[in-house]
Amino acid sequence: MSRHHHPEQLQLFRALPGDLAPRDAQDLMSYPFFSLAKSKRLVPIDYRVGSIVIRVEAVPEHGMATIWDADVLIWAASQVVEARDLGFQPSRLMAATPYEILNFIGRGVSLRDYNRLKAALDRLQSTTIATSIRQPTERRLHRFSWINEWKERADGNGRALGLELILPDWFYSAVLQDALILTIDRAYFSLTGGLERWLYRLVRKHGGRQHFGWTFELTHLHAKSGSLSPLKHFAYDLREIVRRQSLPGYRLALEEQPRRGAVLCFAPIDGTTFAGSSPTHGKPTTGEKL
DNA sequence: TACGTGCCCAGGCCCGATCA
DNA sequence: TGATCGGGCCTGGGCACGTA
User: Fold this and answer.
1) Which positions of chain B lie under 7 Å from any protein Cβ?
2) How far apart are alpha carbons A214 and A203 in whole angstroms?
3) What is the pTM of this model?
4) pLDDT tens profile A219-252
5) Which residues of chain A does CATH 1.10.10 include?
6) Which nucleotide is at minimal CA–C1' distance from A161?
């Protein structure tokens, strides 16, 4: 790891080599911050429930940052946490090669993958977020992009030397707070569906330590996902995911419950019991308002 | 070893069509 | 009217090979 002073007073943090545990920010796991679609999305996400406000906007040139683009943020969070735990000084200004990032997030390293990584960085940089999360009052929104800026570095002959990026303060401070970070299963990077990925993050966030699992009403899940699909399509796609049981470490089920309608139940695979036979049956207990 | 190129195929979200 | 299906478009996976 090397350090030197950056013109903007930020110290450069050179990404750590080796295989790190993937870590994700809890706020990003339970709220609609990303497009779940593989095609370009321009329709904003406008999520307002209780005191939580989230507004995500895209620009026509790049479209909204997707849940696959968020893999770059998982890489960044993993690097920052690992560096801190090893006693190094992490920084919002990070340097790495595209190869290192692509390897970490389980992608290929073809030209297409390099170009898609750059496109992902463009989307992360151009997508703007306004949120009340971790603000003193819901009237005061924090506005930022997932990446403040990024650039490719090259030597005198134009040979690529990797890239540099600057993380936003909102994300960086969340990563540095232990309570706001969760380790995720590396198999997450193998999930190909956007809805599937979003569901894993939600389940990991809410059901990670709950021996008896958790339940969510489908209508609330639909709102939380930010998906543009109508509820009936969303429910259809969800049933497919439940049928495949493809989320690493969790078991899913759909139930019809009186007064609540269709609910999704999930539990850790070693938890063995669904919410239907537990004290947490019928409602989430995180204290958040759905 | 790290990085770059090119190609083909598979799979998923979204949207509109179809059906009961 | 709600549930299901299928195509379009786009992205991901995999592989072989080249280059510095």
Assistant:
1) 2-8, 11-16
2) 8
3) 0.83
4) 888 888 888 777 777 877 787 777 777 778 888 8
5) 187-281
6) B3
